Amino acid sequence: MSLRTLPLLVLNMGGEMLYILDQRLRAQHETDDKTQRGGWSEDDRKRVLNDIVRSMFSKAFMEELMKPQDLYSQRALRCVLTRLAHTSIMRLNPASMDRLYDLMMMAFKYQLLLCPRPRDLLLITCNHVDAVRDMVKDSPCLINQINDAQRQILEMYTPLSDGELQFIRQTLLSLFRDVHVRVSIFLKEKIQNPDGRFVLPTSGPVPHGSDVPGLIRWFNSRGREVRRREFPSGGCYCSSLREGSFDVAGDRVMRLGTNMYCTTSSEDARTSDSSKNTCKTKQQASVDPNPLAKEELNLLAKLMGGMEVWNLASADGGVKVNLFLSEQEEDDGGISSGGDAPAFGVINIQATQDHQVNTELTRIAEELLVQQDQPELPSNKGDDLLAMMDEL
């Protein structure tokens, strides 16, 4: 595992987090429902973004982030990003944080899979940083912070060889190996399958410095070409584009790492009315209830203790924000509800009123509650970074 993976992971996922927050706060500001609690103005949106950027690119945070260290676990990484999101006046409720984290992971995973060369991972990071800089362009102090952080990133990673950068890329991919969340934007563009796996393209420009596949050449001992043969490459490839700039400011050429929500916001706004009408039509058409739904919900509530779960969820007295207010906005935000996915096989589970079974389930539930109340074991991974963030 590479010891230089964490800075790229946090900065890229932090950039995706800012993309989503910016898009969702804009959507809440533009909504016509003025009765919603906690409406966000344009000034509030800018304040939230500025506070998060100030914390993410602060000198203390970057110094701790740039230290050689092992890659965090999913739990520790989520804790860091959650605290980053909560360094502002905004408090996300658990459901919104779950959706936000899933979107961040899947967006960055897609960029890693389509990264043409290991060195292009730096261009993806630069695209994120450039977009964040544009979000806070009205604050010269924050722009200076971002420029300093970007210089540190380029100074650390530019001298690395392609093999070292490929090792970093493989380390990042191993972190998202079992993550297969369906995202509506990817599903609409036909770049993700209903099972959550991405579709790799077999067309487009080849990586910089590479030849278009489809030709085999033979050379003699003197380096002269003596034979060539063409073969079908299985795709429609073209010559590579020019190499992107690795400077603080420049043309990155590649689009991976840019804000994909900007290109879809205008289209979603134009089709919002027709989408709402379509949703109403589908709801009216599905008047026949699922006979298994009630039994499954009753069984789930009995096994897991639904009332206790709701009480625990409302125990936090902080001010929370729901970024995904409705099914339509949830689709616009990116998490797919799976309505258009093909039907999969359903296993029907029947629960009998067996006293012995109920007693065993009660014992298991009590053990789960006891294990949940136990304090976590001390861990050094990420403790310094989290402790430093508490002081921000």
TrEMBL record:
InterPro entries, alphabetized: OSCP1 (IPR019332)
Transmembrane parts of this sequence: none
Compositionally biased tracts (Polar residues): 274-287
Stretches for region Disordered: 264-287
Gene Ontology, cellular component aspect: cytoplasm; plasma membrane
The protein, known as: Protein OSCP1-like isoform X1
Gene: OSCP1
